[in-house]
Specification:
Elements lengths: L4 E16 L6 H15 L10 E3 L10 E6 L4 E6 L2 E7 L6 H19 L3 E14 L4 H5 L20 E5 L2 E7 L7 E9 L5 H19 L1 E2 L2
Parallel strand pairs: 1-10
Antiparallel strand pairs: 1-5, 1-6, 2-3, 3-4, 4-5, 6-9, 7-8, 8-9
Length: about 220
Amino acid sequence: MPEKILADIPFSFVEYQATFRDPIFEVWELRSALLAAVFRALHEWDASLEKVTWKQNPTNAAEVQVMFALPSVEAVFRDSLGGATLFVNNPDWSKSDVIGKIARVGTAAVLGVSKGEIGKQHLTLAMHLMPTEGSIHDITSRYVRFEDAGSMAGQVRAYGFSIYRENCAWVVDSSALYVDALFVRISRTFSPTTPFSEVASELSREESDLLNLLQLRLE
């Protein structure tokens, strides 16, 4: 097997979402109680009044949401009628217990006030990968070939592909943000009772499997 190529990660993010079994329309009536409960739950991570925002003049129910920015962990917790979401920039999996705790206590605060229930859990990891040698064309052409490119202007710089399995999807594409970099996204769906520690462990394994497929390694 060829030696794996070292890749840098100029930017990555992870998104955790707890999708509610039914929309929590009670938010309109319970906004004050919900704001207070989530604010207290996230206080440990420097939640402040200046970092609590909501969409002004939403035009539909999907746009009704409140966001709590947590700069100390580069994260945003968002509550909407359909679910609770935690978005983390450049996550450190060695601190997955912190990410899990934020997701858990934030979501629990919402459910405690609204009496809602989680229907599914989703976790997405996205990374921009910049190989330190070779080209993204060399990496992706092992899996995708398009011989008849005569109608295309210029040489093919990279290929993209997707792999879908039960409750899981991998996407490999050319990065739109960084030259000569790949964009990869791993998405997993879990039952409402799966502990976050297991959710994070499964996603970490998926990340390792995808990097092995691409013959890339991280420091």
